[in-house]
Amino acid sequence: MGPVTGEDGVARCPWAGGPGVMRDYHDTEWGNRVSGESAYLERLTLEAFQSGLSWSTILHKRPAFREVFHGFDADAIAAFGPPDVERLMQEPRIVRNRLKIEAAVTNARATVALREEDGLEAFVLSFAPDRPPTEHATTSAESVALSKGLKKRGFAFVGPTTMYALMEAIGVFDPHVVGCFRRGS
Fold it and tell me: Which spans are transmembrane here (predicted)?
């Protein structure tokens, strides 16, 4: 599947052809490298929350996620206990899924523990492919290996498809289709 040209005359990945939050995300964020532990923890957490839902839903709720998860500060989230989970289960501005909320806390604790190695950012980047995966893939050998490596270190909700989406989102490889104006940027 090739690019779609929007009403503005710009060729984009097919899912970002029309105006709105998805196109804005595509044009300004998707496939761009991020840096820092909180940026990686945010993307990992939001990809987990997106599982089974539309990315548009997550983007619309992202400001609330950032607020209730303290800017994705790993130490702050790692300190959450059962009352915090219950508070978040009552928060209508986010996705209220107990398993995903508990996974966010688990992953923050695992992120803190991963500091004893090189940290979350270095760990994720160590799984960058030598060559970009083929277009339209949903997993890769690298996303499978990243998933296994994170699970081994105590992370949850980090399956191979979710990790592939993370790798796309944070620019571990260029996810844009050939012909998209963002390809190679």
Answer: none
